[in-house]
UniProtKB/TrEMBL annotation, chain A:
It comes from Dinoroseobacter shibae (strain DSM 16493 / NCIMB 14021 / DFL 12). Its main location: membrane. This is Uncharacterized protein. Belongs to the TsuA/YedE (TC 9.B.102) family. It is a multi-pass membrane protein.
TrEMBL record, chain B:
Keywords: Membrane, Transmembrane, Transmembrane helix. InterPro entries: DUF6691. This is Permease. It comes from Dinoroseobacter shibae (strain DSM 16493 / NCIMB 14021 / DFL 12). Pfam families: DUF6691 (PF20398). The keyword Transmembrane applies. The chain crosses the membrane at residues 41-61, 82-110, 116-133.
Length: 144, 145
């Protein structure tokens, strides 16, 4: 595993920006900011217009790190402490889970919880608990 | 106009994710590792995002309609069922194995790291697989009735 520094201020300001973006998307387009929905709609668009707005959404997200680099002079850190096999298996499992669960951290965890949607609160508590349990098992039961 | 607005708004999202540490699997996994190398930073991400969105939504929903659309498109389902809970639990397991979630991975693609592309390709394959299973199940129940 890789040790990481506690970054309360960067994390808080990043979180506030995520909230600002979610609020603006609702104010301007009346839509929920969910990464699962963006991806699912991109791979199976319902119309050309639908594809265009999701592509714009994806383009904005992807250019985020470049803007951070322009401002701070540093690319945001991406440290991968797991094997490629774990990345691919994890990715597959995440894809299946978010499709059946209709959302992920951004859709349920931020937008849904902020609307006090009982469905999103249950989903968020469930995936957080499952992630805590999985990391414990992977790092302290299997590897330990 | 709509597309430019969408791009700029999700750019703010991408910067927020990059700044927050959500795009860094080491940081995400350390948050979930209370028994090991715990890094509580993600509490600040979720706290900041939730409080801001909560207040923001309260203000936005005071309006009759969004600025550039005729109405708000909000999720309509309210069912708390096995599909929601099971799917969310499965997502949590995958998140714990890989350290990336979709919201963290999409902005992280912009760093150009191959690991992010490997994860995202698997993620898209998983979405296709789940949609295939869903439509097969729908067809079967349709032919059964």
């Amino acid at each position: 595993m890789i040790e990481t520094a506690f970054t309360p201020w960067a994390s808080l300001s990043g979180g506030v920006l995520i909230g600002v973006a979610a609020t603006l998307l609702m104010l301007v387009l009346g839509r929920v900011m969910g990464a699962t929905g963006v991806l699912a709609g991109l791979v199976q668009p319902s119309s050309g217009q639908d594809f265009a707005w999701r592509a714009a959404l994806l383009a904005g997200m992807v250019t985020g790190p470049a803007v951070v680099w322009l401002i701070t002079g540093q690319m945001p850190a991406v440290q991968v402490p797991v094997s490629t096999v774990a990345l691919v298996i994890g990715g597959l499992i995440v894809g299946i889970g978010v499709t059946f669960g209709s959302g992920c951290t951004s859709g349920h965890g931020v937008c849904g919880m902020a609307r006090l949607s009982p469905r999103s609160i249950v989903a968020t508590l469930t995936f957080m608990a499952a992630t805590f349990a999985t990391v414990f098992v992977v790092r302290h039961v299997i590897a330990g | 106009m709509k597309l430019i607005a969408t791009y700029l708004i999700s750019l703010i999202f991408g910067v927020g994710i990059a700044l927050s540490g959500m795009a860094n699997p080491a940081k995400v996994l350390n948050f979930f590792d209370i028994a090991g190398s715990w890094d509580p930073s993600l509490i600040f991400v979720m706290g900041g995002a939730l409080i801001t969105t909560f207040i923001g939504y309260k203000l936005v929903f005071g309006r009759a309609a969004p600025l550039l659309e005729e109405k708000f498109s909000l999720p309509t389902s309210s069912a708390i069922d096995a599909r929601l809970v099971g799917g969310s639990a499965v997502f949590g397991i995958g998140w714990g194995i890989a350290g990336f979630c979709p919201g963290g991975a999409l902005p992280a693609l912009g760093t150009g790291r191959w690991e992010v592309f490997a994860f995202t390709a698997a993620l898209i394959a998983g979405i296709f697989l789940a949609k295939f299973i869903q439509s097969a199940a729908t067809r079967r129940s349709a032919s059964a009735t």
